[in-house]
Amino acid sequence: MQESQPKVVKVNNNAIRDIADNAMLNKIKNANKREMEKFDLNLSGCSATIVIQTPEKIYIAWVGDCHAMLTTKERKFQAIKLTQDLDIVHTPQNDKELNRIYENRGEVKTGLTLTGDKKPRVYVRGRTYPGLSTTRSLGDLLAHQIGVTSEPSIKIHKVTKEQCERFIAIGTDGIWDNMSPEDLMDNIKDFGMKEVGAGSEYVVKKIRDLVQVDRQPLDDTTLIISHLKRE
User: Fold this and answer.
1) Count of CB atoms within 10 A of residue 150's CB?
2) Secondary structure (3-state) at 69
3) Are strands 106-109 and 223-227 parallel, antiparallel or unpaired?
4) How far apart are CA 46 and CA 192, in angstroms?
5) Which H or E element spans position 49?
């Protein structure tokens, strides 16, 4: 039996609206559990970020280090970090995440990868695996025995009455490791709605060129730009 898709409930009563919001968040949290059982996920996994837009709110849910940022414009453009603040990132740089790893017989080390990257990574204590750079993921069941979790973080952004929100950028770690949200905004804002693909391709190419010049290892560089519909 197919699950019904999330629906936006337009109501005036605040209590009923909160119920609708919680129902959507629960659906995000529990999605794909049955699908995960079909694969060998002991040493395989991924990060994920999803964004759901309604007329009044933007819901952001993420697991891992695929980040999202929002660009708004009132008098000037502004880049708003949605998932990247240090107290909410799913990496060992977040003290809460780091403590959970050590409390579950894991440890964090750097410099053990073949590429020589400097990211702190999660390992079984005294071993050289699995070497995750994130503290949350979908899959990676071995790492889940040492404190890695698939519990998503969820943020709700209320759309302004003036509808200042312009576009959302969702990118893999290879994007944000090499470009700040502010720099990405400056590179994208001049591309109009008819050139969304050209804007993301421009940023990815620019990052790859910079990394090649610096002779640094290049992680996955996938970028999605979504211009928000205006009523």
Assistant:
1) 20
2) strand
3) unpaired
4) 31
5) strand 48-53
pLDDT tens-digit readout, 15-70 = 555 665 666 666 655 655 655 566 777 888 999 999 998 888 999 999 999 999 99
Distance CA 31, CA 39 (A): 16
Q: For residue 9, give every residue at least 6 positions away whose Cβ sits within 8 Å of its Cβ, in sequence order, or none.
A: 16, 17, 20
pTM: 0.76
DSSP designation for 160? P
- The answer to whether the CB of 188 falls within 8 A of the CB of 199 is yes
Q: Which residue has the tokens 């770690």?
A: 173
pLDDT 10s digits, 134-155:
999 998 999 999 999 999 999 9
Domain residue spans of the chain:
1-31, 32-227
**Rounded distance between C-alpha atoms, residue 171 and residue 222, angstroms:** 6
Domain 32-227 fold = Phosphatase 2c; domain 1 (3.60.40)
